Amino acid sequence: MQTENDRLVAHVARLGEEHPPIPMDSVDFTVNDPAGFGDRFGHVLDYMARVELEVDRNVLEISTMLPNPPEVDKRFYAEVWQPQEIQHGLILDRLQQLLGRPPATTDLDHVGLKLKVLGLLAHLEPFQDVCRMLYYLTGMATERSAVIAYNLLHDGVIETGEHAVAETVIAPIKRQEPGHYAFYQLSARAHWATLAAWQKWLVRRMRRISFAPVGVNNVTQLADFGEVMETLGVDHEGRDLAADVARVEQELLWARDRGLPVPDYVTRAFREAVEAAAARRAAVRLGM
Asked: Under the GO molecular function aspect, what terms does this record hold (predicted)?
């Protein structure tokens, strides 16, 4: 009988075989209206390129908070996720530079103090199990956000008539993201079932205070994320995006709270991103 780990191993192997990193020479960077395309989507490309390229730092963070991860996890992020995501970032960053924009500014090696403290505690196996669950939850939210964003970006690029970019840049990237999400979802469901009651309580507590939208590490990036939401059409106070991003998280962590359709910390984070973007625009108009 196939175990959950067997299914994960097979899934990771299939991702590696069926979705190798996208070759740069397969991409057609032809843009008919560089200025118009850059004005509409340049900041979105910049944000996505930065997030994808910062996967190197993400791997450092994972290694810090999970000193002894399962073999299937290491294979996933070293052989599948990291190579694919880096190539996504390189392609998006090259595209935005061809539009006349500066390259993405990335942080590839900074690991925050909180994560370092978690890493020290994670040498205790029961606490590492808590950290693993937080890693899977973050991965789910990140990859679900990516799936939504790339689908909406693809639709928007098609509307502009830039079919070369839509079909050779965005479409290949968006085909790879669901497999990443599936890995985190399968891992989260299997791992949650193994946790003790006190570990589940700690996961809920830590998730509530640590959640942030993908790629957001400071106030500037929060406003950047809000602008991306607005451009892609998911800025309805964060409600639609929050519900989709946190659907499995709600089911696992908060099923006992029947009246809570979306964890409030997720809704609040997306709402604050939209508010931060609006506040920055207002400040610019006032010359602040």
From this structure: oxidoreductase activity
Q: Is the dihedral of CA 39, 141, 12, 54 positive or negative?
A: positive
Is 257 strand, coil or helix? coil
How far apart are the C-alpha atoms of 105 and 49, rounded to whole Å? 9
Residue 252: predicted pLDDT: 92
Compute the distance between CA of residue 272 and CA of residue 2 in angstroms, rounded to an integer.
44
> ∠ at Cα 22 (244, 52), nearest 5°?
50
Q: What span, in angstroms and rounded, lies between the C-alpha atoms of 177 and 198?
A: 33
What pTM does this model have? 0.93
Q: In angstroms, rounded to a whole number, what is the distance separating the alpha carbons of residues 91 and 151?
A: 17
Q: Computed from CA positions of residues 117, 120, 123, 126, in that sequence, does the dihedral angle turn out positive or negative?
A: negative
**Which two tokens mark 269?**
């984070």
Q: Please state, in angstroms and rounded to a whole number, the distance separating the CA atoms of residues 246 and 273.
A: 16
To the nearest 5 percent, what fractions of the chain are helix, strand and coil? Answer: 75, 0, 25
pLDDT, residue 259, reads 64
Rounded Cα distance, 68 and 39, in Å: 45
- Lookup: tokens for 285: 């108009």
